[in-house]
């Protein structure tokens, strides 16, 4: 068995742990019903576990009957966290709890997500399997850490589970960027945007820009230009431990987005330095989880190509 397969199998094994307290976070939008979240709360309580509600979720839905906890204190309060919503909810929670090594379970209250893989109707049985039977697979996902440097000083920094995107702040002209990897100049890029994506983010914005799909267990990061001036400019996959420096050359303003949840404005001469975060997001999946089945459903790989009509026009 090669090194990659050995590492992957090893990562999916975990000694049983004493799961006593479960924290929950939900999608906090004005049009969101609290019912899916309350269904999951009742399922967890029914398994004999204590429940905590993330403080913003608690305030949004008025769930004062349960103790609340901040994401900053989650590592000292809960053994595992459940995100109820969509991939956006999971992304927002995952980035913030990753430094505390709190594992995450994703329950999707809408359509099947790439990382919120448990459908709401299957949640009771899946949570029993994970929380009570302690039968689950463990998956670790890389994150990116990015700093915006101005005259060598850090003016903003953030993390991303999906991607860091350097994009135009207005409608005029392309961005002009110099890109270096591990202090070696790679290329000058003229494009509407440049996406720096993890394997998790390879099925998000990067995929829409014709980037490659990277399996979540690959140790890589992909750079995908959006509408580049040169048609020969193609995405490139770099080792995950690369340090990527992106310097804004043009005098037009630009914006750096971190998973679309936060952003920073940059100007000519600023450098965006991107590297692998020193911690990972940890996901717990039911044994029935199948990454390729998710790809088939989300990307319609299960549909046969349309056959050309044989009828005359």
UniProtKB/TrEMBL annotation:
Active site location: 87
Pfam families: NAD_kinase, NAD_kinase_C
Enzyme category, top tier: transferase
SUPFAM superfamilies associated with the record: NAD kinase/diacylglycerol kinase-like
EC number: 2.7.1.23
UniProt-annotated location(s): Cytoplasm
Chain positions recorded as NAD(+) binding sites: 87-88, 162-163, 190, 192, 227
Gene Ontology CC: cytoplasm
Chief site of localization: cytoplasm
Catalytic activity: NAD(+) + ATP = ADP + NADP(+) + H(+)
Assigned keywords, A-Z: ATP-binding, Cytoplasm, Kinase, NAD, NADP, Nucleotide-binding, Transferase
GO BP field: NAD+ metabolic process; NADP+ biosynthetic process
An example molecular function term from Gene Ontology annotations: ATP binding
Names of the cofactor(s): a divalent metal cation
Alphabetized InterPro entries for the sequence: ATP-NAD_kinase_N, ATP-NAD_kinase_PpnK-typ_C, NAD/diacylglycerol_kinase_sf, NADK
PANTHER family with a match to the protein in the record: NAD KINASE (PTHR20275)
Protein family per UniProt: Belongs to the NAD kinase family.
Its biological purpose: Involved in the regulation of the intracellular balance of NAD and NADP, and is a key enzyme in the biosynthesis of NADP. Catalyzes specifically the phosphorylation on 2'-hydroxyl of the adenosine moiety of NAD to yield NADP.
Name of this protein: NAD kinase
């Amino acid at each position: 068995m090669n090194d990659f397969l050995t590492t992957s199998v090893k990562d999916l094994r975990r000694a049983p742990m004493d799961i006593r307290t479960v924290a929950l976070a939900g999608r906090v939008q004005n049009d969101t019903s609290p019912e899916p979240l309350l269904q999951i709360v009742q399922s967890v309580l029914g398994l004999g576990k204590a429940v905590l509600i993330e403080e913003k979720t608690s305030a949004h839905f008025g769930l004062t009957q349960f103790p609340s906890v901040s994401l900053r204190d989650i590592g000292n309060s809960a053994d595992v966290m459940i995100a109820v919503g969509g991939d956006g909810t999971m992304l927002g929670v995952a980035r913030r709890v990753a430094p505390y090594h709190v594992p995450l379970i994703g329950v999707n209250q809408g359509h099947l997500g790439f990382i919120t893989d448990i459908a709401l109707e299957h949640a009771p049985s899946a949570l029993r399997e994970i929380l009570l039977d302690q039968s689950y697979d463990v998956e670790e996902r890389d994150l990116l850490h990015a700093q915006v440097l101005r005259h060598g000083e850090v003016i903003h920094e953030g993390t991303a589970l999906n991607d860091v995107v350097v994009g135009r702040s207005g409608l005029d002209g392309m961005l002009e960027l110099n890109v270096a990897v591990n202090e070696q100049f790679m290329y000058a890029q003229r494009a509407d945007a440049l996406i720096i994506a993890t394997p998790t983010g390879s099925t998000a914005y990067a995929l829409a820009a014709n980037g490659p799909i990277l399996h979540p267990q690959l140790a890589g990061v992909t750079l995908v230009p959006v509408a580049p001036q040169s048609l020969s400019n193609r995405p490139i996959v770099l080792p995950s431990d690369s340090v990527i420096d992106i310097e804004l050359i043009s005098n037009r303003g630009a914006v750096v987005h971190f998973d679309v949840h936060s952003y920073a404005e940059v100007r000519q001469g600023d450098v965006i330095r991107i590297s692998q975060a020193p911690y990972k997001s940890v996901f717990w999946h039911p044994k029935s989880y199948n990454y390729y089945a998710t790809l088939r459903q989300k990307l319609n790989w299960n549909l046969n190509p349309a056959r050309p009509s044989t009828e005359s026009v």
